[in-house]
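Help wanted!
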Amino acid sequence: MTETISPLTAGSLAQRRPLRGLRSKTTLRPGLVLAVAVLAIVAAWAIVPHLFTPFDPIVGDGAVAQSAPSLAHPFGTDAIGRDLLSRVVYGTRASLQATVIAIAVAFVASTVIGLVAGFVGGWLDEVLMRIVDVLLAVPSLLVSLLLVTALGFGTTNVAIAVGVGSVAAFSRVLRSEVLRVRTAQYVEAAEGAGARWWDVLLRHVLPHAATPILGLVALEFGSAILAIASLNFLGYGAQPPAPEWGGLVADGRNYLATAWWITTIPGLVIVAVVISTNHISRAIGVRR
Amino acid sequence: MLRYISRRVVYAVFVVWAAYTVTFLLLYQLPSDPVSIMLGGAGGEVAANASAAQKAHLAHEYGFDKPAVVQYFVLLVRAFHGDFGQSVQSHVPVAQLIAEALPSTLAISSLGLLFALVIGVAIAVGANFTRNAFLRGLLFSLPPLTASFPTFWVGLVLLQVFSFRLGWFPAVGNGGFASVVLPALALAIPGAAAYAQVLGRGIEKTLREPFIDVVRAKGAQRARVHLGHALRNATIPALTLVGLTVGGIFAGAVVTETVFSRQGLGRLLQASVNTQDIPVVQMLVLVSAVAFAIVNLVVDLVYPLVDPRIARPAH
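Answered by r_m:
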């Protein structure tokens, strides 16, 4: 009986809301179009890097070492004459892959925690939230560093570490979302009509919590990129000569006085991507 | 009031103990082999060469040959007696390493916190006080924008502009007040952005409340309405945020001290993660939890001074 009423209301509302929100805002704000365009370009860099640059990202040309941005090298070249644009373009895949892994880890772990805590409630909720509180007392970067110490270096380990680092904050938001939906009338109606608890959970609670979660994922995307770049900057991620955004900024540290572009331009690329994802998450309509 | 204080103290102690437990679980109980890590580093190349006796000796010294529960309590009791173990890399006691690095980090983080508070409050008050629509928009949109900047990159750009272009501050080193300014500023920016955002929105909201109309009707000047009434009432959420971001300042020190090549707790942590020096990493993370607990305790004790309603029993 419940199944005939609820999927209709739950499903259609949850699916329509974000799309309609996006459409009305694109017509109003060109900023959102720009943000989507930035992400589209970066995604293309990750998928087909060779279409964007004729230069090799690993082998440099010593004759043009440390040359400032020009028509031939729009981002300039680094200390051993590698084209910085192609380093950035080829580094995109490593950075984005790590970001996706980090979000997947954070998302799966905190969905389980958030759903169980918010839905089962009682002492289990109490215990889980106290653990989350403690994890929040330790900054996520330090949690990530703990994991890097225990797991070892490398792109994948850094990605997992960043994911685990954001589980605490993420599951807190998920729990409050679940609690909000849980107390809604249609959920009480479903429970009152005798639906099994996992049916209520999967068919009613989850779809309604989906829109805010989508916005949260977009927001999380930005902070995951920043965290991964930080760990790579510290030297725990991709090992040279493999390019990665945070590592590229670190490469320029010794040439601050002579070649500003080696640190500044890859940093600007990171900033542009993070601003874009934050903008999109706001457009979906979520504030953390 | 006494009950309020004692409850906050108990909670602070609980946070530190729980943080200890979490770090223990992550560092010693993940499916990795701490002994090999200590002997050889990430790849474990050296570990293969280490003799079985060496391994057994190390395992015995750290108690890895005993069950996990026993290990946990042995380490906990030792930590309680002030024995935090010694660095696997340099064999210097961890407590000594931390004591040596602490002053430098305290210098940049306290100045950083001061910068963050001054900048944050200035932007929040300025954004609400100005009558210029453009300036208002700028001041309100600046803080969320800086949240998109990687901290290491901000530090490097500051270095480039103020050290290499303008030559105002030394580029590297631990010497003197001038060398503290730029790292403190780099540390302050994320905090300042967060405070400005929360405080700015808080003031904006408070200014729309009825009691502000009463204050205005009584003839109070605009500055008094903003600073004396709106700012004070918007302080509590911002104060909570200061407590929450203190750990973040320590995390920022890891990146900032690396950028500015300064010695300190952050640099020590970076180096210890590099050599997978487990005891040092654990204690440094614990230091951040202790700092978090202490600052939040202070914040909890300050609340009743700002808002006397808080310490009164509910109902």
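OP: Thanks! One thing I noticed: Residues 30-50+74-284 of chain A form a domain with the MetI-like fold fold (CATH 1.10.3720.10).
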